User: Which sequence fits this backbone?
């Protein structure tokens, strides 16, 4: 549908709607009706919930682009949403575009109003739209007052041109510039007019600050100072490296990265610190743009990894998108994170044991709900990226899936990845490695095997005292008997639920009365009838255990001298523990 546009009113006071739309990705938003044209000024971009509008009509949205989450352009309430935004003075309203398109009543309301009507395409997420629009708005902000030299020079760059930004800032401060993300990875660097000092050379060649240097700066308190101030932090020259100035680049409370200036064969300019402050402000839209596009690329890469793990069609294309070499052998490592504050509270099944993809914009079953779980997975993802070239990772619920290129003679990459997770406070991580897949078709089987390893580790931890909760890792070959047993229990479970008998009566009594007959029988069976050892495992006296076993026989008919009863008791109690 061609958009309806009328002549602009010629208003000024901010970047125009047309200018903002011209800076975002083509096709992200469609203009349906623009009654005042696209020259209307824009003050800000906000998420809007029509239910929160005040009934007295006093709410104002002058110059705002309102992203109306939850309202489709074809819905009956869309007309009321547009009219309310128009009364409040909004510059534009963005609604989700559905399969039927806008109703005639909505088009008529837009034509007689003053607020532009835009639609978001279904494949574009609200987070992306908000990020791109705000980045474009920040990039379009007017230059600062006279005396903030350099803003105009940076402002003339194409949005997201980080190499151009580095070169421009280098000219302003009279030194060599690197632009880094919060993890000290190099995003861009300025041209080199002189031979770089050893640290700059190492950083550029490795595309990140060397790990030992990061540890050194962290231990000295330099990073704490950098991330806790808006001002320039100075790192004096020493007998190894030239003087450096650094400043964090922030968008509100979010740290987008940092700018680093190093003396480049000559002392830094006297006003280098002031120039770096100005450059940090001007760098916000560029780093925000980079971050937004980077997130979109990361989501596409994750989706490609999920395609490979599920064995979907067009594996060759998915491998290309994920950065996987089709002919190279890979092993799948699966990790799950849990908060250490709730030891022993590990579900027998993490949601469904079936593979779960997150899906763009959809909540996955069992998505981590605590910061500790998120932090554990974050550390593992970072460790995976640094572990070996070619590692790729994707999340699904509280799980992290990592495709690890097989190394010569390596059998258990899970342990190497777990080493970093052990140091994460307040989290317990279980990691399992599947067998190496010779080609892409073997990845789903490797993933299923790795998931079964994690399940074994989780169930092992669930049987231990809460105070002993600890992270664990294993390879599939190490837990073959237990994974086979879990598969058998999965298949026997539905049949067991249709039956009845002494074991059913005992487990139901334990469930409703809180008794421990089942745990006592299980300990006896696990120790092959050694009552002393079984009693110690339950932390009770041997006579107490013997009494419970006798009562289990009297109350429920559990005759442990009968091999058939022992077998049924073992199966039933394992199933009860398995499904609890």
Assistant:
């Amino acid at each position: 549908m061609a958009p309806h546009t009328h002549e602009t009113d010629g208003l000024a006071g901010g970047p125009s709607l047309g200018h903002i739309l011209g800076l975002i990705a083509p096709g992200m938003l469609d203009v349906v009706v623009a009654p005042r044209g696209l020259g209307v000024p824009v003050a800000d971009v906000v998420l809007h919930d029509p239910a929160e509008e005040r009934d007295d009509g006093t709410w104002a949205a002058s110059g705002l682009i309102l992203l109306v989450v939850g309202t489709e352009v074809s819905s009956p309430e869309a007309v009321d949403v547009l009219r309310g935004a128009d009364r409040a003075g909004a510059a534009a309203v963005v609604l989700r575009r559905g399969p039927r398109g806008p109703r005639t009543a909505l088009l008529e309301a837009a034509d007689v109003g003053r607020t532009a009507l835009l639609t978001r395409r279904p494949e574009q997420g609200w987070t992306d739209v908000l990020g791109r629009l705000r980045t474009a708005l920040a990039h379009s902000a007017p230059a600062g007052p006279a005396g903030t030299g350099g803003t105009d020079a940076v402002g003339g760059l194409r949005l997201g041109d980080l190499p151009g930004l580095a070169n421009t800032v280098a000219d302003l401060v009279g030194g060599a510039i690197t632009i880094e993300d919060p993890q000290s990875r190099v995003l861009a660097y300025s041209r080199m007019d002189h031979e770089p000092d050893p640290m700059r050379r190492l950083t550029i060649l490795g595309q990140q600050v060397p790990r030992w240097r990061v540890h050194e700066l962290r231990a000295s308190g330099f990073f704490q100072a950098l991330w806790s101030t808006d001002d320039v932090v100075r790192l004096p020259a020493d007998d190894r490296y030239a003087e450096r100035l650094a400043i964090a680049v922030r968008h509100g409370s979010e740290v987008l990265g940092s700018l680093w200036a190093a003396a480049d064969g000559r002392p830094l300019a006297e006003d280098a610190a002031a120039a770096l402050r100005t450059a940090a402000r001007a760098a916000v839209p560029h780093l925000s743009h980079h971050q937004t596009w980077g997130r979109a690329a990361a989501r596409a890469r994750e989706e490609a990894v999920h395609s490979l793990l599920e064995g979907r069609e067009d594996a060759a294309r998915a491998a290309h998108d994920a950065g996987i070499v089709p002919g190279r052998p890979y092993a799948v490592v699966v990790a799950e994170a849990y908060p250490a504050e709730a030891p022993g509270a590990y579900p027998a099944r993490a949601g469904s044991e079936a593979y779960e993809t997150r899906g763009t914009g959809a909540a996955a079953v069992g998505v981590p709900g605590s910061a500790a779980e998120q932090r554990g997975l974050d550390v593992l993802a970072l460790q995976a990226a640094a572990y070996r070239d070619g590692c790729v990772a994707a999340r699904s619920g509280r799980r992290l899936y990592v495709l690890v290129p097989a190394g010569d003679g390596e059998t258990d990459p899970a342990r190497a990845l777990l080493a970093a997770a052990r140091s994460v406070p307040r989290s317990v991580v279980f990691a399992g490695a599947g067998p190496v897949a010779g080609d892409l078709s073997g990845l789903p089987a490797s993933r299923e095997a790795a998931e079964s390893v994690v399940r074994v580790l989780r169930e092992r931890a669930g049987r231990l005292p809460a105070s002993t909760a600890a992270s664990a890792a294993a390879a599939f070959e190490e837990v073959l008997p237990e994974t086979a047993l879990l598969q058998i229990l999965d298949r026997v479970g539905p049949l067991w639920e249709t039956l009845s008998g002494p074991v059913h009566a005992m487990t139901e009594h334990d469930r409703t009365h809180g008794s421990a007959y089942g745990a006592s029988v299980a300990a006896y069976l696990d120790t092959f009838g050694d009552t002393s050892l079984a009693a110690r495992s339950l932390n009770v006296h041997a006579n107490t255990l013997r009494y419970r076993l006798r009562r289990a026989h009297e109350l429920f008919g559990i005759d442990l001298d009968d091999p058939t009863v022992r077998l049924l008791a073992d199966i039933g109690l394992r199933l009860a523990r398995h499904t609890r």
